[in-house]
Design brief:
6-stranded mixed β-sheet; alpha/beta; 14 strands; Nitrilase/N-carbamoyl-D-aminoacid amidohydrolase
Length: 271
């Protein structure tokens, strides 16, 4: 499918109240599907909520892919015939815990998972970091995912682009302190223009403890223009039509990806 509607669910999450968060997410996913969305993305740790000063509590609520959160989202995706990204705190097979996004297809099957490769703050202590950057070839084109702080590192999006990604999804719990709201905007636009693909970032809103979240979910075109965006406070669903033909057209016109000189870049992996 070359053209489809994308939906980004900007929601406030109740810290550690899985049932309330899953119920809210389910209602909003149903609304998105009813409005014609083929792909719906939820924010980082949608089921547990996020609090950077209490990562251990989040770790205690980690689930496997067979747990209630993913099981509920799989059933919902199958019922609604949509693709759905459900980010959770994941209990990995080796006993470690990861900050993970699960991509579920329109039959309710798990296409794959991506685990945050750049943990931030206390995540570094309590979460195992991911080391893979998958790109899934789906009915909705080639999709890659990074999570929140990952978007600050241009290497992450470049790997996805070189693997053929046409859309990069960025579920996040991005905070509003300091200059972070401006950092969010600049990062997303740069990652899109650097790689000539769509960037769709869904951030949570609201507050947990002393942490206020930045909202500002947005979809960026392959030339870095903001196509759709929410404000900081509003809870709702952001929609955008995706035209994958535009990715090909922009990459034919702008040769930044083929004019690279990787033979000069060894320093990037040496430090």
């Amino acid at each position: 499918m070359k053209q489809y509607k994308l939906a980004m669910v900007q929601m406030d999450c109740d810290f550690l109240d899985k049932e309330a968060n899953i119920e809210k997410a389910s209602r909003m996913v149903r609304e998105a599907a009813a409005n014609g969305a083929s792909l719906v993305c939820l924010p980082e740790a949608f089921n547990t909520g996020y609090l950077g000063t209490d990562i251990p509590a989040m770790k205690e609520m980690a689930e496997t892919l067979e747990g209630p959160s993913v099981t509920r989202m799989r059933k919902l995706a199958a019922e609604l015939k949509i693709y759905l990204v459900a980010p959770i705190i994941f209990a990995a097979d080796n006993g470690e815990v990861e900050n993970t996004a699960v991509l579920i297809n329109d039959e309710g099957n798990i296409e794959g998972t991506y685990s945050k490769t750049h943990p931030v703050g206390d995540e570094r202590t309590y979460f195992q970091r991911g080391k893979k950057y998958p790109v899934w070839d789906t009915k909705l084109g080639k999709i890659g995912i990074v999570i929140c702080y990952d978007a600050c590192f241009p290497e992450t999006s470049r790997i996805l682009a070189l693997e053929g990604a046409e859309l990069m999804l960025v579920p996040a719990a991005w905070r509003a302190s300091h200059y972070f709201k401006e950092w969010w905007d600049l990062n997303l636009a740069c990652r899109a223009l650097d790689n000539l693909f769509y960037v769709a970032a869904v951030n949570r809103c609201g507050q947990s403890g002393e942490e206020i979240f930045a909202g500002k979910s947005q979809v960026i075109s392959p030339v870095g223009e903001v196509l759709a965006a929410f404000g900081v406070e509003e809870e709702g669903i952001l929609y955008q039509e995706i035209d994958l033909d535009r990715v090909g057209k922009e990459r034919d016109f702008n040769t930044v990806l083929i004019d690279r000189h990787p033979e000069d870049y060894n320093i990037l992996s040496a430090q």
